[in-house]
Design brief:
The protein has 253 residues and is of the alpha/beta class. The protein is 42% helix and 16% strand. The protein contains eight helices and nine strands. The protein has helices at 11-28, 56-68, 89-100, 120-138, 152-157, 172-177, 193-199, 221-246, and strands at 32-33, 45-52, 74-77, 104-110, 144-148, 162-163, 166-168, 179-182, 205-209. Strands 1, 2, 3, 4, 5, 6, 7, 8 and 9 form a nine-stranded mixed sheet that branches. Helix 4 links the parallel strand 4 (104-110) and strand 5. Helix 1 (11-28) packs parallel to helix 7 (193-199) and helix 2 packs parallel to helix 3 (89-100). The termini are far apart.
């Protein structure tokens, strides 16, 4: 349906969006891609952020497109989800490849898989654990985390700028003071990203995308989810077959 702009969410259009970012926001307007550490230093700063909710394969593709244009983003990664396991070899190798392109890895904190109670101490303890795990795996200092699908209760409770030495992507200051555009759920709930980049003049800015939605071909969000699940199934099956072959066994059917 035209009102959802499904054709916005393609690799070719993502290249177009990156060109708008590079030539309009950076070269013409003097904007700068930044990290959370220097978001508030008075410059025309832009956070270019990805939450990897479902597809590390799609994340790698976007990371390659960005790196080809000299754009560095931050990729927030979950330890595990229904769609991927960070420590699975094929997934881990792709995340390392993203990091080696110069992108930053951040912690995507899922309050459902790692429940926290109403205390700050509970959040800090889990973030400290994840920070150590991520830094060991990626050999990169962790500087930021983002909540995955946070409720208003979570956002209102954990609103500080930092926890466990990590910048909070959903801090009260960021939510109140940063111009924001997101592709959540595979459609534009507020403004199209292209329009946002061409028209928004208030800095700092944050652009949040989810790599799952950006595919080679035009399709509705439900089909993009199905595509990711089908790919996950094929990869698991191939991995199992490879293991059997390696140890001289057969897949009895």
């Amino acid at each position: 349906m035209d009102k959802y702009h499904f054709d916005d969410f393609t690799e070719s259009n993502y290249r177009k969006i990156l060109k708008i970012l590079l030539y309009k926001k950076i070269r013409e307007d003097g904007g700068r891609i930044c990290t959370y550490q220097n978001l508030w230093n008075g410059e025309k700063n832009i956070i270019w952020r990805h939450d990897i909710d479902c597809s590390v394969h799609r994340a790698l593709k976007l990371a390659q497109l960005e790196a080809d244009m000299g754009i560095r983003a931050i990729y927030f990664v979950m330890v595990g989800s229904q769609f991927y396991n960070m420590m699975e070899k094929g997934i881990y190798d792709r995340l390392i490849a993203i990091k080696d392109m110069g992108h930053e890895i951040g912690i995507h904190f899922d309050c459902e898989s790692m429940p926290i109670d109403t205390t700050e101490e509970s959040l800090v303890k889990k973030l400290e654990f994840l920070k150590g795990l991520f830094e060991g795996l990626f050999q990169q200092n962790m500087s930021a985390f983002s909540f995955h699908n946070p409720t208003e209760s979570i956002l209102n409770k954990f609103y500080k700028d930092q926890y466990a030495g990590l910048y909070n992507a959903y801090s009260k200051k960021i939510r109140a003071g940063v111009s924001y555009c997101s592709d959540s759920n595979g459609y534009w709930r507020y403004r199209r990203l292209e329009d946002f980049l061409l028209e928004e003049e208030t800095y700092p800015m944050c652009v949040l995308t989810h790599p799952l939605w950006w595919t080679p071909d035009v399709m509705p969000p439900a089909r993009r989810i199905q595509r990711a699940l089908e790919g996950r199934k094929r990869n698991v099956e191939a991995s199992y077959e490879s293991m059997l072959k390696k140890y001289g066994r057969i897949n009895v059917k």
